[in-house]
UniProtKB/TrEMBL annotation:
Keywords: ATP-binding, Nucleotide-binding, Transport
Localisation: Cell inner membrane
Entry annotated with the keyword Lipid metabolism: no
Identification of the protein by name: Putative nitrate transport ATP-binding protein nrtD
Cited SMART domains: AAA
Family indicated by similarity: Belongs to the ABC transporter superfamily. Nitrate/nitrite/cyanate uptake transporter (NitT) (TC 3.A.1.16) family.
One GO location term (cellular component): plasma membrane
Matching Pfam families: ABC_tran
Organism expressing this protein natively: Gloeomargarita lithophora Alchichica-D10
Entry's transmembrane regions: none
PANTHER family documented for this protein: ALIPHATIC SULFONATES IMPORT ATP-BINDING PROTEIN SSUB, TAURINE IMPORT ATP-BINDING PROTEIN-RELATED
Amino acid sequence: MFLQVRQLSKHFPTRRGVLVALEDINFTVAQGEFVCAVGASGSGKSTLLRQIAGLDQPTQGGVWIDGQRVTGPGADRGMVFQHYTLYPWMTVQANVEFGLKLHGIPRRCRREQVRYYLEVVGLTPFSEALPRQLSGGMKQRVAIARALAAEPRILLLDEPFGALDLHTRETMHEFMVNLWQRTQLTVFMITHDVEEAVFLANRILALSAHPGRICQEIRVELPDRSLGVMGIKRHPRFHDYRDELMRLLRHQGQTDSPVPALVV
Ligand SMILES: Nc1ncnc2c1ncn2[C@@H]1O[C@H](COP(=O)(O)OP(=O)(O)OP(=O)(O)O)[C@@H](O)[C@H]1O
């Protein structure tokens, strides 16, 4: 398995005691999979992603990528966040190129890589534009191009479409599925948007809150994505998955502790 999360727990010390954000999380992601973790606010999605990204260390258990234990951030993982993280004073081209420059990649290779990934995300005509001249969806495509340009082995997405309006979000969903199918990327994404998870993922991990645990794993088998966003979203099987997940999260919401789990 490419990504392995084993017996992972994360505790945070607080003034009232130790808060259990994640408890005994176990899952794997194979190469080429698109896995989404879905859960209510406070279920530990961001905490989980941070452990995988190596931005934080688990209290127990751990994360392995291709058999190597994650002990910090690494170029094998590309991240895209919800809020635009582009440098406003740099052009699209310079934003995508920046990380490559830091890694000491020679200028000619950098330029070629940037050209290729701007093409992949369909932004070649905007390479000289500044972020403020782009729509929200375009900014996120630049952020995705920037993450891809470093040629990571897995893309980690932190609610990347959460700040977009509904129409742009749907366009981005279609874009993301096409990108995934064309590049055979391995993707791990967190979201609280059930429809987004069902549309994008081939496997969904549903998280319960307080403490965050995986309460169910759902394999998604939808008809051919060439039906487009609307075609898929009207399909009965899409509704079945969405309703199952909604029911599950609603049930969890009723049974989860309303306050964070504390171990004093
Ligand atoms: N650094 C921290 N110190 C103390 N508690 C924390 C810290 N980070 C997260 N928590 C707590 O851990 C739990 C999980 O938080 P997390 O942000 O991972 O949830 P989430 O599912 O991503 O929520 P949201 O969807 O609202 O972003 C919450 O109860 C939160 O208050």
